[in-house]
Amino acid sequence: MENIRLGIDFGGSGIKGGLVDTEKGVLQGDRFRIDTPDPSTPEHIAEVINQIVTHFDYQGDIGVAFPAVVQNGVIKTASNIDKSWIGTNAAEVFSHATGQPVKVINDADAAGIAEMAFGHGKDEKGVVILVTIGSGLGTAIFTNGILLPNTELGHIHYKNKVAEKWASDAVRKKENHSWKKWGKRFGEYLSYMEKLFYPDLIILGGGASKKFEKYEAYLENVDTRVVPAYLQNQAGIIGSATSLL
To answer: What is the pTM of this model?
Structure first.
């Protein structure tokens, strides 16, 4: 089918792929997941990407959501992945490994594209910020549906720390914070985002979005409407496939 594309989401703990109906924004069948290799070098990740393509017996354009700043397929940062990625053309590496055309975009941008097309951001006007909460904090900003790519606002400095080193879900787990304590901390981060961008809507993605009811009440001093991502953890897969259109 012309509207079916393979989307792959490269995460800190797992690399997940699925066939996506890009007209409806839904997976066709089950997703397929492989643990992220350590070290997460280009060679190792390319091998996993090819395993996913082989699993689906897929031929055609592939979209990959990647946890870094991506410019024209080239990786510019490496906060939570192997440093050898910096300066690497990931699109070329994955295309060579799979024999298929590959488009690589920032993972939070991919999640945002999915939410704006099929989730809570659909038909939203004004400024929408999506924050993915996981091993770091990813962000995507849209104005009237137009993406500003590679914003990486999890890396801004707040409380004399890089924000994601203070308020990510990985920090919550590592420091064994209650949902209340972490929720208040994360709420401070969102409040800071408000002061910078005055968004009309904030969408929360990533693994912690599924636990929204546990910390929603503690997002104090956040005036903007905040909702968990409609597509939850499928957003990266769906968005990377949708970005091919």
So the answer is: 0.95
How many CA atoms are closer than 13 Å to the CA of 194, on its beta-carbon side?
Answer: 18
Mean pLDDT of the chain: 96
Give domain 4-109+235-242's CATH number out of 3.50.50.60, 3.30.420.40, 3.30.70.600, 3.40.50.720. Answer: 3.30.420.40
pLDDT digits (tens, 9 = 90+) for 98-124: 999 999 999 999 999 999 999 999 999
From 188, 111, 203, 123, select the one nearest 156 (Cα to Cα).
188
Say if residues 175 and 102 touch (Cβ distance below 8 Å).
no
State which fold the 122-229 domain adopts.
Answer: Nucleotidyltransferase; domain 5 (3.30.420)
Q: What is the total residue count of the chain?
A: 245
Nearest of 162, 164, 138 to residue 151 by alpha carbon: 138
Rounded distance, CA 153 to CA 155, Å? 5
pLDDT digits (tens, 9 = 90+) for 4-21: 999 999 998 899 999 999
What separation in angstroms does the CA of 8 have from each of 75, 82, 188? 16, 18, 32
What pLDDT was estimated at residue 28?
96
